[in-house]
Amino acid sequence: MTSAHTLKTPDGTLYYEVRGRGPVLVLTGAPMGAGKFGSVADLLARDRTVLTHDPRGISRSTLNDPEQDSTPELRADDVVALLDALGADSADVLGTSGGAVTAVALAERHPGRVRTAVAHEPPLMELLPDAAEQRATTEDLIATYQREGLFAARERFAANAGFPRRESDGAPVQEPTERVLADSTRFYVHELRHTTGYVPDTDALRSGPVRVVVGLGADSGPLLTSRTCEALADRLGTVPIVFPGGHGGFAEDPEGFAAVLREVLKSPPGDREPGPAGLGGH
């Protein structure tokens, strides 16, 4: 059973959902909201209290100032506010894509509130040798969105990320809804630059109390996030844990994804190894 809630914050309102009972597990994305986690959240809620939410400014989480940027630090603070609302002292966290950057920022800023932080495919471009080129590409993506609109930006984004190009089936292209356009503006104009430009303090993370696990999709080899996963894991002195599917493996294979996540979270909080035997692969 899923219960829906809203939480007033100093700069807006956060929408969140709670499922199940047991130790708290937060699933977070950016810009992806709560809805895409539905299937995997239901599975994990069999033995966990699972919290999902729409990140700030996205969908049902509104901001008082729509021009406010979304940074990993602010999103990490939002997760803490949600834990406070739930009455939870600490939680395990699975962040995916931009939400993985949120999870890393959360482990840095609020280490006392996180047990294990699983960063699934974080687009931490500043860790790459070609960071300057990636920074320029990000600025070009933002300019493309502002100049040419959503479809042109999506195509360029997918090409840079390594996603396969979608072949047209001849059907007319549907115009995006107001909500899709609003969320896309939040992503391209107010979020993308800050997420990809985040520079984690990997020395502090490596020596800190939070167990940080890097997750990589089994099918994500061609993706840019494969490189960022390897770079983050290398700086943390570990190796990525392989999850089923690709960048959206939690939706592509929710049962397989949930099974791997359960195994990862079984490890003792102080365990700094890559994870249970058989889960590595890099």
TrEMBL record:
Entry-linked InterPro entries: AB_hydrolase, AB_hydrolase_1, AB_hydrolase_fold
Gene3D superfamilies: alpha/beta hydrolase
Matches recorded under Pfam families: Abhydrolase_1
GO BP, sorted A to Z: glycerolipid catabolic process
UniProt domain AB hydrolase-1: residue ranges: 23-137
Protein name as catalogued: Pimeloyl-ACP methyl ester carboxylesterase
Organism: Nocardiopsis sinuspersici
Alphabetized SUPFAM superfamilies for the sequence: alpha/beta-Hydrolases (SSF53474)
Molecular function terms, GO-annotated: triacylglycerol lipase activity
Highest rank taxon of the organism: Bacteria
